[in-house]
Amino acid sequence: MSVKTTRPVWEEKPTPIGQTLKAAALALLVLGVLFPLWVILVTSLSSRETIAEAGGFVVIPKGIDVSAYRTILSGGAVTRALWISTLVTVIGTALALTVTVLAAYGLSRPRSLGSRWLLAYFLLPFLVYPPLVPKYLVVTGLGLKDTIWALILPSAISVFNLVVVRGFFQGIPQELLDSARIDGASDFRILGRIVLPLSKAVVAVIGLFYAVGYWNVWFDALLFIDRNDMYPIQRVLQSYLLAGQAPHTSGATVGVTMPPTEAIKMAVVVLTVAPIVAVYPFIQRHFIKGVLIGAVKG
Amino acid sequence: MKRPRIPFRVRLQRDWQLLVMVAPGFLILLVFSYVPIAGNVIAFQDYNPYLGDNPLEAFLHSEWIGFGQFQLLFEDPAFWHALRNTLTITAFQLVFFFPLPILLAILLHSLLSSRVRGFIQTVVYLPHFFSWVLVITFFVQMLGGAGLLAQTMREADLQPWNIMTNPDTFILLVTAEAVWKDIGWGTIVFLAALSTIDQNLYEAAAADGAGRWRRLWHITLPGLRPVIVLLLILRLGDALSVGFEQFILQRDAVGREASEVLDTFVYYFSIATGNYGYGAAAGLFKAAIGLCLILAANKVAHRLGEQGIYAK
């Protein structure tokens, strides 16, 4: 990308009004994202007195009180939901990455047996979404209801990600692969020993996309998970924060003063956001490339 | 040019490992995409889930009724209402959401300090990775009846605004949420296109006396035109989808009248009630119109001399 770093001599000097407006717009945008995160984090860490004094939300922190986190992490619905979401995310991402990388390699060699037909087969679902009602009947018909597989299997391959990885594999110099083939290496060996080590960045980005998708799964849980002890975290977040149920925690806290409800609610939000904010900076540099490959080829 | 044909058996021997690698993905798409797509045929049935132990048996035993479900659908005022809401929201967002990432991309591109630009990009891309449950939670906590804004207004002895539950302004609310979530993400494609515009064009235009607005109009926007047209086509092809989770999640707060769109209609009038054939008919109608729209939009793009989604 060509990015200018100094103002070219022929360009007009910016007007003060223009500069101010520009800065104000961008500052507003950045604050619009960071401010809610800040308020929610601070409120989740506030004591009962601080929250009462502020009248609900706390903007300026006054001491740190982690009792809300201790309460929801000591067992109960939120703890269980966090485990289920972690399980879905880890198994789902591992499975989806395996399926995607294998398919991408299998489709990446020009003029292999059946490659044209197979490529068309893999690309068509990009244009035609699986319709909701028949998909619901298929998943329930397979007996996947109320299991984590109902959340994992239907999204275990995304055509968009497949296209991105395949495009990357095709950019690897063919001579490298040919020489390995002459030496008698099998395709599985070539994929594992040559192709994958060269593709760490793209695999990381696709892994992030899958992981975020699995962590965020909500609607599939609404469709396929009826037992509330199998709810993933987004479903629990929705029932506490949007449907107005009180976060019930484990019975062990009877007799102990409960931390304030506001702090508990905000702590659930923080725990839902945290994994995404935690992995995001490591991969952010790479994903722009991933998106662009997909956008150009798609 | 014709290549010498390699016998099937030799190719199989050479490529069987590739076929094995493709197999898992093939199976997943077969079961979770192709079977459901074929399953659309229950739109022509009076599908009764109780006619068998599993959906397949029920399908085999259900009665074929032709276009009966579609007839019911087209006579259902709730369906037309959902369709009207969907199209209104699409049109509204085309005007008030679609141009924003273009503006933001131009703004970001004009920044001289790459560190400031990198920081802003990092921040504004982030909400794209939040689930809709989270996004709406943020809005409720900030702008809702018990949110920070209402809290501040009460302290100032003002009557708090009714933002999250007002059906009349719901269209503004869903657009604001969509902007908050995806304005940053939407800039990526435009930023890439901006960086490919030849800088000499700007210098030559400036030498000819074109001011910054004229350069924007005559160089920047034409440079972005192919990308804008492509994204418009994709958006038009998706005109009947305006987001699903976003609307289900807020339906209780603002009511069905304002928030029912085609996708939620399919869910509430079919899966929630067990009336599967009816929902399949609505889904099929939506998919068919969507396909026509995208092909039509692509044709128009080709007429206008743009590339569209596939080269002719």
From TrEMBL, chain A:
Keywords: Cell membrane, Membrane, Transmembrane, Transmembrane helix, Transport. Pfam families: BPD_transp_1 (PF00528). It comes from Phytohabitans aurantiacus. PROSITE patterns: ABC_TM1. CDD domains: TM_PBP2. This is ABC transporter permease. PANTHER family: ABC TRANSPORTER PERMEASE PROTEIN MG189-RELATED-RELATED (PTHR43744), POLYGALACTURONAN_RHAMNOGALACTURONAN TRANSPORT SYSTEM PERMEASE PROTEIN YTCP (PTHR43744:SF9). It is found in: Cell membrane. Its main location: membrane. Belongs to the binding-protein-dependent transport system permease family. It comes from the Bacteria. It is a multi-pass membrane protein. Residues 82-277 form the ABC transmembrane type-1 domain. The chain crosses the membrane at residues 21-41, 81-105, 117-136, 148-169, 190-212, 263-283.
TrEMBL record, chain B:
Its main location: membrane. GO terms for molecular function: ATP binding. The keyword ATP-binding applies. PANTHER family: BLL4140 PROTEIN. The chain crosses the membrane at residues 21-44, 87-108, 129-150, 170-195, 216-234, 276-297. It is found in: Cell membrane. The keyword Thylakoid does not apply. Residues 83-297 form the ABC transmembrane type-1 domain. It is a multi-pass membrane protein. This is Polysaccharide ABC transporter ATP-binding protein. Belongs to the binding-protein-dependent transport system permease family. Keywords: ATP-binding, Cell membrane, Membrane, Nucleotide-binding, Transmembrane, Transmembrane helix, Transport. It comes from the Bacteria. InterPro entries: MetI-like, MetI-like_sf, UgpAE/MalFG_permease. CDD domains: TM_PBP2 (cd06261).
